[in-house]
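Consider the following assembly input.
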Amino acid sequence: MNMTGRYILAAGLGLMLGGAVSAQTQPAAKSADKPRGIGPYAMTVRQGEKTARTQVWLLRRARDMVWISRKTQTGSFIDMGMHQDDVVNLEIPRPSVFDAVMQAANDSARRAAQRALHAVQKQFEPYRDLPGVIYDEALFLEGRLLEQLGRWDEALKLYTDIISQKYESPMAASARVHAGLCLLQKKDFEGALAHLDKNTIPPDDIDLLSEVCFGRGTALQALEKYDEAIMDYLYPVVFHPFVNSNEVRCLKAVVPCYVARKDWDAVFKTFYALRKDYPDAAETQETRTYLEAYTNELGRELDFQIELKDEELEEDEEEGNDDEA
Amino acid sequence: MSKKSFLSGLLILCILLAAVLSNAQDDSPNTLYREGMGFFAEGNFEMAAERFSDLISRFGNEEEFQQAMATVFYALGCSQYNIGQYEECAGTFEKFANVYPNAKFVDEGLFRIGSAYFALENYEKAIEAFQNMMEKMPQSSYAEDSFYQIGVCHMLLGDFKEAAESFLAFTQAFPNTALYSQATVLRARALFELDEWEQSLDALRDLEGRGRSFEHITIANFLAREIGDIAFDYTDYDLALDAYRRVQTKEFLLRNQRRLVEGIQFNLELIRRKRLAGQDVEGLFRQEQRLNASLGEAQQMLANLEQMPEYDAALFHRIGRCFFNTDRFWEARVAFTRVIEIAEEPMVREAALFDLALVLNRQRYFDDLIATCTRYLEEFEADEKLVQNGRVPTMAYLRAEAYVNKEFFEEAEVELRDILKKYPNHNQLSRIEFYLALSLAMQEKFDEAIQRFETWLKQYPDDIMVPEAEYWYPISLYYSGQHAKAMPRFREYAAKYPMSVYTPEALYREAMCLYSLEQFKECAMLLGSWMERFPDHYFRWEAKVTRGGALAAIGELERARAEYLGVTKEAKAFYYMALTDCAKVFKAIATKEAYEEMAKVFMQYINDEPDSGNVIDAAYQAGWALRQTGETDKAQRFYWTILSRHGNTRGWEGFTPVFKDMMRLYGPEGQDRFRADLEQKYSEALQNRRLTLGARLKMAIILSRPPEEQGAEIQKLADTFTVQHLGPEEIGFVGQYFLNAGQTEKGMTYLNTLLTEFPKSAYVAVAHVRMAEAAYLAGDLEKALEYATLGVAEAFDPALYIDAQMVHSETLRALGKYEEAIPGYTEVLANRMSPKAYKPLCLLGLGDCHAAMDRPEKAIAFYQRIYVLYRAYTDAVVQAYLRSGEQFEKLKDRQAAINTYTELINDEKLGAVPEAAAAKERLAKLQ
């Protein structure tokens, strides 16, 4: 059912949206020469089976009603209320601070970005549940800023706020992952694992998926669940190695798990892969340093691998001889 | 290249021409021009071309029209192009370029010559034309497209080397061109066609670095996959991995491709609108040409992609294979696991499950391997094709082998038998049969294992597993007690496979066989050389103990002593075993020095292993040895110190022998002093709340009293100390007392506590035997049998063992299991340590068993032994006479029965017992 029919309090929506909606019975709102509220933003609204798009200014929120200001055909502006369910989308330009957040290189830049984000949040908080409203993104970005500052608890609070909303926030998947990463920093590994779920990540968000896998690997490693940690660390290596330096960082991360399992064969091959494909990477050097404590074990493994190679060569030679014969 | 119509916006250009030709009549140049333009605007390029051709042929050489004629040529060329008269079009634009080299659209004309030849699929001439265009007008915006088209023409000609070079030169010349991605992808394709896969992949990498256009993601993906496939086929797995892992998922590609098609269609629509509005004619032509080419390609690719089943699963499976083939098993495992998750086609899942099983097998993750094989078999076991091609049997074999590796031999046996039944021609038949024999041996089913090993060795004399079988066969013989048969096979094994990992153990087992066969000298010699050869072997300590035993057996006591004492604390359990065995040697040497050394080594043990449960026994051994040396004070002090230090340790046992030895140390005259000391220590223990020690001292006090006083004191002990403060010895002691006193329930409670709290206690066997006796007396034969069976297995103390056998046989007899009861009775009867009272009972039991099994002669023989040998046991003798008589009756030997009953009645002592009445009754009937 079209809720607008019940809730429109101001005349003129039909007019506003090209006469598509029949005349309203409610008293006409007071018109003005200038728009009020914040905007203008393009708003798509539901009209029966169809939708229509128009320019509006956001005035206020009263429970499930959204109050807007819009221009009539006569050029004057009227205020009107509509039910939240009839708002299909709001197109709000992305504030420049959003892009600045991740580039903020120092604390003062971060503080400035945070202030700007607070301003955005203040402006849009009443409308946060409307599709297209950027409040949750501002909240999420503030969380990311706080993460950069190592303020995990505060960041976690913001992410939890997003996750716990009744509406389906477009930021929910990212917020859940970053909440998991904050819990990881707080060494709440079980909690982190509950948040870091590969299946909730949009399929083309490889960056986020990579973070989930790496975070899960870290948590599982800390919980000494090495086999599972290995599987998570290696997921990006196997499927998305060239995104986010996944291969080099995950191969480095997985080595201590192999060591814990005394899987020297895997340690050997992983280090070999690092040296071959990433000879100059810091991760390769760090792995080399880490493995210095296991020289004996690796030495034995190396002997074994050489032995194995020799055997293979011998077999090959034998096969070759047979062929010749 | 598109052949569709384009560029109808010539109207603007022709305004000038209209002015020049303004005075024309019907067939005048003006008319022809206006008509031509009208047709052109309508899209009737055929008529337009006719008018423009007519205009050129009639007025083309007129001096006054020369300037305007350039545009007519251009319009004619465009019309011809639009109606597919490409050859004419090329001629028109060639003439146009020759005659009007400085005309405004001459660059486009030159480009269209190439495009016309391109459309005619005359790529050589197209290349010439595009090159000509570039040379003549290098600054024109068409130079870029011409350059690009040259590469495309080379591709279409199959000149991949030239194509690759051309595209590379193009991207170097126009690094910011919108065609960069397209050119690079095509260069990668050309390199691929030249078998330059590495360089081809480099080109794709270069594209990634620059940020691929939307348009080329799918093409690049397909190419990366092709590179991966061919590298995989050529076993270049590193390159294959590099290529495959650049390929996106189908979902991603589909979304991208749909967006791309929609985007191209939208842009074409925009161009159409702009063209109608007459905007930017030149630019639109180029854009439209590019977009039309792209749209067809994109749509085709989308269709291809949509029709590809299991695109991702197949890709991930290949990735997994690459990792597997480079021995990176963990990565392979990740890949195959994902394939199993996403595969929709059963056969794709089958392949992934199969390969995952191979990975897990290599990783020796046997639990996961079993689970994977089980999943595989549940889904595919019935697939006849997979059975025929050996994949199902392979999975079944891997699972069975995993059970063997897990040492789940029971499950392995079931699996292996099943495989032999279902797949009698399995390609791993020799291994399956070997594993089956091994699994049986490991379950101690030695008879079948030995038989299977023997058959196996005959059946597969050249198999790679022969050394394994030749080792496990004598091992099975050895553990089944066939030491004589096992011994030479161990020796042969060691000679045949001197470098085998099993050789040291084979030689060791050979020595153990010699020991069992009581060839002690040979055993000692072999173990001596063995220890020299394998000084660090895991069995070295056990070998020293055994060698000590062998030397002792041949009377080499000093050498035995030295061997035993060579076992150090490093040997853990064997340390104490060596000392206890050595104690026998010390006792055999029986010199003061020997006892002094004995005391010393046991005290050293207490120092070395102060937390060992053997401490109390070691203290007893040391104290006993001190007593032999005559150092009674020292021994007493030592015992009291040990008791004070360890007496409150509840879990430990062995205190009773200590107290008994202390009693001996105090001597007959010192017993009061001993009791007084015990009382004092007891009182101190209670004061210090050392209640376990208190209970132990209390028990010692009780045992120091006459038997008739003990009962009440034990009751007091039980009242004073809760069971939580009693050690295993005291619990067993109190429990046995209550059972003997007829307080069965109370006694059972104590003994059950012993079993629960101290399941490893030496008194567990005592508990089981006593509980069996109680259950037997109570008529609970099932329980009695359960406890008695445990008692027989656990009892080390000979007296207890005899008790256990006795109750076990009695219970079996009472349960009607006569044949099973006989060996136990026979053993008790034959044992010199058996209490004499047991012997008539055994004979009675044996007689009863045979009687019950309808063997009266045998029964009578046992009964008669009672009244011949054990006349002191009146009850048994009476029963023996009666049952003997009964058996004679059964044999219809009336006289023998009469004699038997008469003998009983006439016996002065026996004739008076009540049972004699029964004999009289029988006798009366017989007479």
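Confidence is low (pLDDT under 50) at residues 1-28, 321-325 of chain A. Ask yourself how this observation constrains the way the partners meet.
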